Amino acid sequence: MKKSKIILIHFVLFILLSLVFFFSAESILKTFAPDLNYVTVWITLVIFGIAFIFIVLLISCLIFILRKKKTKKRKKIEKIELTKNGFQINYDEEITQFKWSEIEKLTGFKVDRITTDDICLKIESDNKISFATEEFEGWRIFMTELLNKFPEIDKNWESIIAIPAFERKETELYNRNKNVG
């Protein structure tokens, strides 16, 4: 339920209870306390009204605080693993598998994350595209194997892309069609 809907429900409930209390208070007082002063009724109404508003606000705040604790963001899975004939990329439980022999194109680039940059790799084959970043678990092991499988890739491509800071600097590292004799 949205915040505005919960607050609206509490507000409507407050109005209804206030109206019931307002219209029934006088008849109840005449029946059970005929000598009571009407000023006392209004003071009581104001005190109970303020107390009710406080309780409604407190309940609303508690609902949002408890809901926020329940809906903590779960950590994304970002992992790249070597397999027998290639590798697989696991991005938030979406797994993309590649064989070394099916890679058509590798493109390195940098993504600006405001205070830092992420070195990224776009991996393309005939029928699939995937991305991996230096933040992925297994990145170093993968990069070592990638550079062994594709010796034409400059071994310093990450540091070349890193400078200048906060600039995308997209670079084609490997293209099967261009690299064929």
Estimated radius of gyration: 33 Å
Structural class determined from secondary elements: alpha+beta
How many H/I helical runs?
5
Average pLDDT number? 81
Q: What's the arrangement of strands in the largest beta sheet?
A: 6-5-4-7
Q: Ranges with pLDDT <50 over ≥5 residues?
A: none
The biggest beta sheet reads:
4 strands, antiparallel
Share of helical residues? 40-55%
Beta-strand percent range: 15-25%
What is the 3D shape? rod-shaped
Count of spatially separate domains: 2
Cα(first) to Cα(last) distance is: 62 Å
Order of helices and strands: HHEEEEEEHHEH
Compute the number of strand runs. Answer: 7
Keywords: Membrane, Transmembrane, Transmembrane helix
Strand-helix topology:
Blueprint: H1 3-32, H2 38-70, E1 78-82, E2 86-91, E3 94-99, E4 105-112, E5 117-124, E6 129-133, H3 139-149, H4 157-162, E7 171-175, H5 176-179
Antiparallel strand pairs: 1-2, 2-3, 4-5, 4-7, 5-6
Helix pairs in contact: 1-2
